[in-house]
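Comment thread on ticket #2218

A.B. wrote:
> Attaching the input chain for the structure job we discussed in standup.
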Amino acid sequence: MKLINSSLAALLLLATSASCHTIFQKLHVNGVDQGHTVGIRVPNYNGPIENVDSNDIICNGGINPYRQPVSKTVIQATSGAEITAEWHHDLNGATGQSSDPVDPSHKGPMLAYLARIPDATQEDVTGLKWFKIYHDGLNTATGEWAVDKLIKNQGKLTFKLPTCIPAGQYLLRVEMIALHAAANYPGAQFYMECAQLNIVGGGNASPATVSFPGAYKGTDPGVRINIYQGLSGYTIPGPSVFTCGASEGPGTTPAPEPTSTTTTSTPPTTTSAPTGPTVPQWGV
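C.D. wrote:
> Ran it. Output below, let me know if you need it in another format.
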């Protein structure tokens, strides 16, 4: 049997239909579970956003309408707190199925952003200024993606809030980008939800910010990419991760970049394209 090339694999992915999506639906602060869907703007439908120029790329809730009523809880967290974002295939939580927290075909990076906001429960999220506090992409030495780690961790992604940012209310935007159909644009699948935080403590840092939409473009090398070819590296979309510096107030130990973030010094690794009846499915 001839190997199915990447283009045909992508077509098969688009042509088939099954539920392979995911939702960020629970937050843990310093190991304390804040409750299922509490303080998070969760949609009823677990589908992706594919248009990086849409306002839906901010916190979802457009083509995937929010479950009503939207939670009005604002989760309390101290600067420097350990945050765990928990993802599952749908709002039923952990199911133990092969598609939970997400289908293994959905390889790609994981990212987290913060934006200050006057009221973390306000409906309008346009015009906010976001700074990235975490990302993880491809370990080119092992071929392991950040999503692979998420699956191993049963849907849990852990990172820390910066110690030096001002106290106040924030939205925490946690994002997965699935690249299994990203050889053309649109094709990459963006999954994101926003949690409502009140951060206490902190310092006086003023991180550089980006806007959503605007932070990503369809031509970005981390958005339009064929992951079934040998990759010598992967460029995670968006800005670099903000870290606290010595002149930015208390608690300023710089945080290291994740060890599995892309490098380009290792030999290429190849992810095999799905073949035959084992091609992962996605859709409704």
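A.B. wrote:
> Thanks. Noting for the ticket: The two ends are 30 Å apart (CA to CA).
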